[in-house]
């Protein structure tokens, strides 16, 4: 499975609905993500990709849409 | 859009705002207009902006229709009933109308500052000054100073100083003890100069003139609104119960009946509403609470001296009224009658030895029935008795006065002079 | 001696803006005169603390800065070598030690000694320092630069009461000049914010402050059995007073920051239009609530989830809400009403979350009317919490 699909799966699991049709929507503005869900996301990503994403690296502007999150994860992996 | 144009769009409105402010302060027409009704309302509104500012005072005392006379005092001025001076003057169409200057917390130092803004109204004119011995606590009661102080008073005071007198130096020192003055960068320096007997430079004076311009415009702008209905609610309402013609014997029986009904809830003959709200919750605690009160030694004697000096400078013809306390109440709280009378002796000596001989001394009459409206405030028959002095005084013509000011009354020697141990007349 | 308290009166703005003109001209032409900025900042900080009772505070500020700078400098160099959790905890504790001492002093314990450590703005300086230490621990900050650290913590426009910036965000602006377009945009906003601030702080806050003192007197006079209808007025007038005073102040700080070419974060975003409590904390004292969100709430949740302290996700977030808001309450001061205020908002957020979950599951009608009702309800909950916060109830019930 590629990174994109796995990240979407993680996001779907946390948010509880399919977000694959809103890849460039701001998840914080729409209320789908909040602080709580963010931490879950970071923990899941940490487990899945063995990447270290400390909370203070988490800048909301850089993590606010599914596409941005995917790009972020890719950069942290590689 | 070019950058230059953008900058204009940003700063243009700022420049316009400054230009408008400049116009507001510099244009030569006044910014306030008080109708005769508004002035009448102000005369019984007790608003602190009257004491703080110039605008209302000017409007009232320059007014040609009604002859307003300043009544300086404190909380007793706000005790309305059918015999209140404003009510009597209005009902019986006297050729004067009191203008109330004061409320709870105002004493000599505040009045002195306020007088700086109304010197023409005092100059060769009449005034009434009601003295409460309660002002004469050791350090004075000027904790309320900041509530009634305004920079405009201070600027007027500084501009009024021609040659620095001991009174000016005393006041400078007292003002610097007030944080509202000492914390102001500009004024603290100028007042310190006065304290040190140093004349202000012409640069200081021009700076003060500019300040005066700004502050008095501000004062004008904010004195258009009189937030009070006292004339209708207190004065007119109380007038209705009075007989058409003035006769002090008739009035005495009218007011005795009113007072009897209004104070029937307690043995102190305190007005029922006051008794219920202010006394009942703490009646037990107040018993014997004033045994140690002492009005004989106080810095207030010197603040009062500053006021006297001001009256002397302006040749004001003043009637002083010395207020009593409710004896039924003071016996309960343990306030010493002897101490009270000794402080009154000291006050009267200070007045009379300098030629202030127009005194209505009511201080010994606090035991008379219905003379007091509550604990320390005259009302009812007390107001009627005061009227026996006020009406003849204000209905007669102004007489030039000749006061001999003695600066020794500014000294700590006098403040600490104990009138229980020494005869006041031994002080010189 | 000339003494200038920040944004206190019209003359302050005249002095401040005149002093900033050379800096602004430099920035407009793409040059940042760092040395000039430092001198002007130091001068204005000096003028806060140069006379009377403020001198003591100035000395406390200097001691505080020596202490915190040494701590951060040492920790950064330690962090390059090792990363022991306990060293991090102890360093964090030592950095909040001064404000802790002052807060304890405020309660009356060793009052005279401990409160000597306090000065105007200590809590805001503490947020900046602690934030820096935590980000260093995370490895987000790698180098310690003395001049940058001092400029960040002592940033003059925000010294006394925020907004609270972050070290890395601040440093993006600190050494370069913004582009001309960006700077013109800054100036435009600055002018607008200054004037909006004048309206807020000098007109509206002034009016509400008078109303607040009036309602307090009325409530005091009318107290019967621990209740007076005037308390409602006290709560509302205080709430509006606090908002207009603090938001006005924040606007001045942000505007001054803009003139100096810094993108200072905003502190308020129309908080009285919040639809629920969570929304409120995204709009009210934003830099403080986000600081708590990032450095307390999220970290706590992260730790609790990683160590599986609670099985349920909901319990985890509820505990974190209450702890987070309680700490915020304690930060304001160690009195019952600040702590109750914190607890109230903690519980409020828990209830709010439960409602949002319920709403998601069930079909709850949602339209303009329910939205207005939500805003109205939130406003009243907030005003009630501010009635607790203002401390009048303490006077009303216990020191009558």
TrEMBL record, chain A:
Q: Which domain of life is it from?
A: Bacteria
Q: What subcellular compartments does it reside in? A: Cytoplasm
Q: Where is the signal peptide?
A: none
InterPro entries with a match to the protein in the record: ACP-like_sf, DltC, PP-bd_ACP
Task: Tell me the function of this protein.
Answer: Carrier protein involved in the D-alanylation of lipoteichoic acid (LTA). The loading of thioester-linked D-alanine onto DltC is catalyzed by D-alanine--D-alanyl carrier protein ligase DltA. The DltC-carried D-alanyl group is further transferred to cell membrane phosphatidylglycerol (PG) by forming an ester bond, probably catalyzed by DltD. D-alanylation of LTA plays an important role in modulating the properties of the cell wall in Gram-positive bacteria, influencing the net charge of the cell wall.
Q: Name one Pfam family in it.
A: PP-binding
Q: Which PROSITE patterns match?
A: CARRIER (PS50075)
Its protein name is D-alanyl carrier protein
Residues bearing O-(pantetheine 4'-phosphoryl)serine? Answer: 35
Give the organism the record lists: Convivina praedatoris
The similarity annotation says:
Belongs to the DltC family.
Keyword Cytoplasm on entry: yes
Question: Where are the bilayer-spanning segments?
Answer: none
User: Which pathway features in its UniProt record?
Assistant: Cell wall biogenesis; lipoteichoic acid biosynthesis
Output the NCBIfam families linked to this UniProt entry: dltC, PRK05087.1
| PTM text | 4'-phosphopantetheine is transferred from CoA to a specific serine of apo-DCP.
> Boundaries of each Carrier domain copy?
1-77
- Protein keywords: Cell wall biogenesis/degradation, Cytoplasm, Phosphopantetheine, Phosphoprotein
From TrEMBL, chain B:
Pathway field of the UniProt record reads: Cell wall biogenesis; lipoteichoic acid biosynthesis
User: Species name for this entry?
Assistant: Convivina praedatoris
* Coiled-coil residue windows: none
Which InterPro entries does this one have? DltD, LTA_DltD
- This protein is called Protein DltD
Q: Which UniProt keywords apply?
A: Cell membrane, Membrane, Transmembrane, Transmembrane helix
Q: Which Pfam families match?
A: DltD
Record bears the keyword Cell membrane: yes
- Annotated signal sequence is none
The regions listed as transmembrane in this protein's record are: 7-31
Query: Is Transferase one of the keywords?
Result: no
Report the sequence similarity comment from the record.
Answer: Belongs to the DltD family.
TrEMBL record, chain C:
According to UniProt, this protein's pathway is: Cell wall biogenesis; lipoteichoic acid biosynthesis
Which InterPro entries does its entry note?
A: Ac/AlaTfrase_AlgI/DltB, DltB, MB_O-acyltransferase, MBOAT_fam
Record's keyword annotation contains Repeat: no
Q: Which residues cross the membrane?
A: 12-28, 33-49, 55-74, 86-104, 116-134, 190-208, 229-260, 280-302, 314-332, 338-356, 372-398
Q: Which domain of life is it from?
A: Bacteria
Q: Which enzyme class, named as a word?
A: transferase
Keywords attached to this Swiss-Prot or TrEMBL record, sorted alphabetically, are: Acyltransferase, Cell membrane, Membrane, Transferase, Transmembrane, Transmembrane helix
How is the protein disposed in the membrane? Multi-pass membrane protein
Query: Has the keyword Hydrolase been applied to this entry?
Result: no
A Pfam match: MBOAT
Coiled coil spans: none
Q: What is its EC number?
A: 2.3.1.-
Q: Where in the cell is it found?
A: Cell membrane
PANTHER family (alphabetical): ACYLTRANSFERASE, TEICHOIC ACID D-ALANYLTRANSFERASE
Function description = O-acyltransferase that catalyzes D-alanylation of both teichoic acid and lipoteichoic acid (LTA). D-alanylation of LTA plays an important role in modulating the properties of the cell wall in Gram-positive bacteria, influencing the net charge of the cell wall. Catalyzes D-alanylation from DltC carrier protein.
Family in the record: Belongs to the membrane-bound acyltransferase family.
Q: Which named protein is this?
A: Teichoic acid D-alanyltransferase
Q: Which organism is it from?
A: Convivina praedatoris
